[in-house]
């Protein structure tokens, strides 16, 4: 099971005293459907299920939104965090806006080989 964090930032912002905008709601849910999917596929599944109001993920998140939340469908500007990486919904697709440690380590594995983690790897790290 994977933990998903869905942050609604589009349309309904709360402006704080310092003029910083805060999301109206962030939902955190465990979803077995993410297992075996890429992050992009997970984001698309979240988008699809929250905009069609059906599916096992929709069933899990539907009762969770704050009473201040006017809708649960994802829109441009909303964010989904999966496996430590946060993606923002764009007009077409998703953009990574905060990359988690696991994603950085996977990239280093790809670029440097798995040996970079080894303390005896010649002191590279």
Structure description:
This protein is α+β, with helices and mostly antiparallel strands and 125 residues long. The protein has one domain. Helix content is 26%, strand content 26%. It is elongated.
Helices and strands in order, then pairings?
Layout: E1 2-8, E2 14-15, E3 21-22, E4 25-31, H1 39-52, H2 56-61, E5 79-82, E6 85-89, E7 94-98, H3 101-112
Antiparallel strand pairs: 1-4, 1-5, 2-3, 5-6, 6-7
Index terms:
single chain, 125 residues, alpha+beta, five-stranded antiparallel β-sheet, two-stranded antiparallel sheet, 7 strands
Distance between the termini: 32 Å
Radius of gyration: 17 Å
User: What is the count of β-strands?
Assistant: 7
Number of helices: 3
Strand content: 25-35%
Mean pLDDT: 78
| Derived structural class | alpha+beta
Shape: elongated
Low-pLDDT segments, ≥5 res? none
Give a quick account of the main beta sheet: strands, pairing sense, barrel closure: 5 strands, antiparallel
Strand order across the largest sheet: 4-1-5-6-7
* Percentage of residues in helical conformation: 25-40%
Write down the domain tally.
Answer: 1
Helix-strand pattern: EEEEHHEEEH
């Amino acid at each position: 099971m994977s933990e998903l964090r869905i942050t609604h930032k589009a349309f309904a912002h709360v402006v704080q005293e310092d003029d910083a905008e805060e999301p109206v709601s962030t939902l955190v849910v465990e979803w077995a459907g993410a297992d075996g999917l890429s992050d992009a596929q997970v984001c698309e599944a979240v988008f699809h299920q929250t905009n069609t109001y059906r599916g096992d993920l929709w069933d899990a998140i539907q009762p969770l939104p704050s009473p201040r939340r006017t809708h649960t469908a994802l829109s441009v500007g909303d964010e989904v965090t999966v496996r430590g990486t946060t993606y923002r919904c764009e007009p077409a697709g998703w953009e990574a806006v905060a990359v988690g440690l696991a994603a950085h380590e996977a990239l280093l594995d790809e670029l440097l080989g798995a040996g970079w983690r080894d303390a005896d790897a010649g002191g590279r790290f």
